[in-house]
Amino acid sequence: MPKIWVLRGIKKGILTNEFPKKKPTAEEIPGRAVPPVATTNSDWVSGEKVCPTGAIQSAPERRIDMGKCIYCQRCAGSGFDFDVSNKGRVKALQANVNDNNAAEVVAKRLRIFKRSFHILMIDVGSCNACNLEVLNLSNPYYDLTRFGIFFTNSPKHADALIVVGALNRAMVDVLKRTYESMPEPKLVISAGACAISGGIFRGTESFVSPIQDVLPVDVVIPGCPPTPIQILEGLLLAVGKIDKEAVLH
Amino acid sequence: MIHKYVERRQVQEVGGPIQLSSIFRAGGHSYALLTDTAANKTILSEVPARLGKEFELLLKGGQAPPGAPIDLDPGSKVEGYGLFTFRYGPVTYGVPEAGGFKLVTYGERIIKVIPQVNFKKRLVENKVIGWKPEDALLLVERSAGNFSASYSTCFVTAVEEALNLDVPSQAKWTRAVAIELERIYNHLYVFGRLAEAASQNVATAQINALRERVLRLNGKYFGHRYLFGFNTIGGVRLDISKEDGREILDSIRTLIREFSDLVEYFLSSRIFLDRLQGTARLPKQDALNLGAVGPCARGSGVEWDDRLTYPIEPYGDIYINIETDNGEDTMARTMVRIREIQSSVVVLRELLDKMPHDGPRLEPSSEYSPISSNDPADFSFCRIESPSGDLIHVVQLDEQGRIANLQVRPASLVNWIPFAKSLENNVFTDFQFAFESFGLSYADSDR
Predict the structure, then answer these.
(1) What is the pLDDT of residue B447?
(2) Which of A106, B140, B294, B326 could covalently link to B155 via disulfide, CB atoms 3.0 to 4.6 Å apart?
(3) How far apart are CA A152 and CA B360, in angstroms?
(4) pLDDT tens for residues A164-218?
(5) Residue A98 above 50 pLDDT?
(6) Helix or strand (DSSP H, E) at B115
(7) Cα separation values, B418 from A175, B286, B383, Å
(8) If you measure CA to CA, which chain A residue comes closest to B139?
């Protein structure tokens, strides 16, 4: 019997999720932190004490910097709430208006990329998890191409640069040259806690600086690593296909 | 300290089945960790008088400072008319990581490969000195994201041994479950990349869909898609109950059934097989001489699996089958990975069925104190069969129970030289297949 791959593919049916029309399920974003329900000052102070990256700040104003959060869940014991229970199970996502966890547009938003958007991923010192999550966007569950977004191999073809990892001394020059060889107009998306703030690698010998100190960053996507849905959200935000208020909240 | 699974004897010369796995310093003294691949034993010895040239290269790759890439040059200089050195990386899609190669080519033919590592050296081992083990764990498990369960388990087991903690069995069995899940998704990744390189688009999509399902399973039961943060010193954070175990097993069983079905399809596709068969041959003798580990060594007929060489609990209590293949080429390494995915379901069944339920972790107390800390030469170590092979952590703690010394020997670091050797005299278009079949990760070797 001839083995026909195409028929096999059709037989599987549609796996692709309906993001951004529908909210992602808990299964698609496991371990995503929701903002703290901690209200007492002592909760915030103890949270600040246990946080290994300094993402929690109790004074002068209470805030969580999601760009620094590495989702270690240490603060979960001290009044902060995660959507992962102590059993390690995923609970349903809770909507919260103060959630600054979602991807954030830092500067401009270019609508000219709405129909065709070519992205190049550059690793400047990641642990490989962010790389895999970015590559995961091409699997049938997320299917990047339905939005007209494509991976490209060359900076000359790229409209946007996705930077992952804590910027390493050996990669500074490579990163700058890659950015310079991209044609205008161009966007820079920094994905993952390491790229945004150095994350847990902040303070290692080889770490240089957050990406926004080297390149003009347009979109930041927090997470350690950000899940494909979060990256997808960031990409759609970059091309102006969704508004920030419309997703995830 | 007495290492339960280790034979202590002096080895004079490395060669044949005796493999040098790691050299480390502890308390001003150098030790060598060797593996007897024939008898499946770990040997601890003084440093042998004669080391292979390749090992010196690896030490160079392992101890280099950050800031500049270094070449792992596997052999003598090649020169001649018509030779062209082609630089590949560090920004490519073919290698989706910061790392590169220098390919010395003559026309289509690759004469020599010089892997370039150290583009993203993060020096985790230096950074964690003086840290509490719990804090160091956060860095260690983020050294190589896709081998995170192996890294954290290896580190945590070594620290627990140094602290002499009596960790509940359930924690150890849960860790083994995580490592098997990690093995499945990493092998699926390799297989997907191979299919992608052969332009089998439907097949790639199907394999990637399977991998996504394993990642979601990780997320559901371990709280993180890449298994970060489930380990702590003294146990695991989560409690896998009997029902959870049954659910995990059911999902994995259906998944493996679909995978086996796909594999049957693959193995009847001549287009795919032609790219794998005979590509990047690594003869058994070379694999032994160059110290290949993991599926690469097993694809060359070397029967070596750390789950048997260093059988920490629970590997002593369950049946582990070493999957080997004598093909010595890319096909053989792929077949080893396929069979390991399939036999992982057997291992998982045993792990989840027989898992004792005596609590997931020790409650933190002030009793965590290093033992016999007066002896500065005192160290502990652990070996774990990570998806790419043998991973070694050597840990020393000081009087306060803080990290005094951490040395990591990742699997990928060792496999660069066998990979470079195997690719010699292959054509340029075989590069992707050879590279993916070795399952090499720059994050792993540049930890």
Answers:
(1) 78
(2) B140
(3) 45
(4) 988 888 888 889 999 999 888 888 888 888 888 888 888 888 888 888 888 888 7
(5) no
(6) strand B109-117
(7) 30, 7, 21
(8) A200
Beta bridge partners, B112, equal B104
Helices (H), chain A: 5-11, 41-50, 129-136, 172-180, 193-197, 228-239
- Model confidence pLDDT, tens digit, residues B43-95: 877 776 666 656 666 666 566 677 777 777 777 777 778 788 888 878 877 77
* Cβ contact, residue pair A204, B444, below 8 Å: no
pLDDT at A104 over 70: no
Residue A169's CB: how many other CB atoms inside 10 A?
A: 18
Residue B188: its pLDDT value, please?
92
Closest-CA residue to A232 (of A17, A10, A9)? A17
- At A111 the pLDDT is 63
**B289 in Cβ contact with B19 (< 8 Å):** no
In this predicted structure, what is the pLDDT of residue A87? 29
Do you find a cis peptide bond into B418, omega within 30 degrees of 0?
Answer: no
Cβ partners under 8 Å of residue B119, min gap 6: A125, A168, A170, A171, A174, B69, B89, B90, B98, B99, B100, B442, B446
Other CB atoms within a 10 A radius of the CB of residue A154 amount to 14
Task: Show residues of chain A in contact with B223, CB under 8 Å.
Answer: 30-31, 73, 84, 88-90
Chain A hits for B118, CB-CB cut-off 8 Å, are: 170
Rounded distance between C-alpha atoms, residue B434 and residue B103, angstroms: 13
Q: What is the ipTM of this complex?
A: 0.86
- Characterize the bridge pairing of strands B41-46 and B6-8: parallel
Contact A140 B209 (CB under 8 A): yes
Query: In this complex, do B441 and A128 lie within 8 Å of one another by their Cβ atoms?
Result: yes
Q: Is the pLDDT of residue B428 over 70?
A: yes
For chain B, the average pLDDT equals: 82
Share of residues in chain A with pLDDT > 70 (%): 73
Candidates B123, B219, B230; nearest CB to A204: B123
Q: How many CB pairs under 8 A join A and B?
A: 195
pLDDT of residue B220: 82
Mark yes or no for CB contact A3/B91 under 8 Å.
no
The C-alpha atoms of residue A163 and residue A195 are separated, in whole angstroms, by 7
Measuring CA to CA, which residue among B156, B356, B138, B162 is closest to residue B228?
B138
CATH assignment, B127-413: 1.10.645.10
Is B90 in Cβ contact with A174 (below 8 Å)? yes
- Beta-bridge mates of residue A90: A84
Give the closest-approach CA distance of A152 to chain B in angstroms.
8
Is the confidence at residue B291, as pLDDT, over 60? yes
Measuring CA to CA, which residue among B360, B379, B386 is closest to residue B151?
B386
Cite the beta strand spans of B208-293 per DSSP E. 231-232, 235-236
**How high is the pLDDT of residue B18?**
77
Is B338:B267 a contact under the CB 8 Å cutoff?
Answer: no
Cα–Cα distance, B195 to A100 (Å, whole number): 39
The whole-model pTM stands at: 0.88
